[in-house]
Amino acid sequence: MPDVLVIAAHPQLAQSRVTRALMQAARQAGQADPARLALRDIYALYPDYDIDAAAEQAQLLQARLVVWLHPVHWYSMPPLMKLWLDEVFAFGWAYGPGGAALRGKDLWLAASTGGPQESYRPDGYNRYFFDAFLYPHEQTAALVGMRWLPPLVLHGAHRADDAALAAHAALFVERLLSWPRWPEIDDMEPAPECAVPADARPGEA
After folding, report:
1. Taking the alpha carbons of 196, 198, 200, 201 in that order, is the dihedral positive or negative?
2. How would you write the chain as a 3-class SS string?
3. Alpha carbon distance 144, 194 (integer Å)
4. CATH 1.50.10.10 given to domain 4-200
5. Which residues contact 140 (CB under 8 A, 6 or more apart)?
6. How big is the chain by its Cα radius of gyration, in Å?
7. How far, in Å, are 108, 109, 113 from residue 127 at the CA level?
8. Where are the domains of the chain?
9. pLDDT of residue 203
């Protein structure tokens, strides 16, 4: 089973430029080295939104690096990606008592935004630096014991020319294939401890 698992989500892939290019590049790399890399297009796998959580969990168990590849939709992830997260990162499996299936793995986000980078500033129309919108992603990683790696983000996706897009896709694949030999993560600490007690089970409040 591959070390690197890319979970890709784009609800309108035919209209995508960035996500589609990165998916194609990752798929080609995975075909060349299936023991290293695999890609799962969850909108193609689950067009009816009926996610097979057990199958997804089985894939995650084998990977050491999990990659979320998606555009930023309303400062968050696309809807099927959120449903995938809700159903796959289950209490007692991913977190909570007995939930240690993902502990010690790495989580990397590859995302794109429609707005340019300068829009993610206090004086821009998005009002906050982009990192502020990633706290839910980062805390999700911490809660399940995964190390949150510095994300790869392409801002202003609609304005990127073909050369910039090709360079970004090449960088994405290079990072996938060179992990964990990234200089910037050599000194990173493990995920912080976020123990969830048994009486915090969702739905019992």
Report:
1. positive
2. CCCEEEEECCCCHHHCCHHHHHHHHHHHHHHHCCCCEEEEEHHHHCCCCCCCHHHHHHHHHHCCEEEEEEECECCECCHHHHHHHHHHCCECCCECCCCCCCCCCEEEEEEECCCCHHHCCCCCCCCCCHHHHHHHHHHHHHHCCCEECCCEEECCHHHCCHHHHHHHHHHHHHHHHHCCCCHHHCCCCCCCCCCCCHHHCCCCC
3. 8
4. no
5. 85, 89, 107
6. 17
7. 25, 22, 15
8. 4-200
9. 58
Mean pLDDT calculated for residue range 74-98: 96
Whole-angstrom distance, CA of residue 50 vs CA of residue 140: 22
| Amino acid identity, position 40 | R
Whether the model pTM is above 0.70: yes
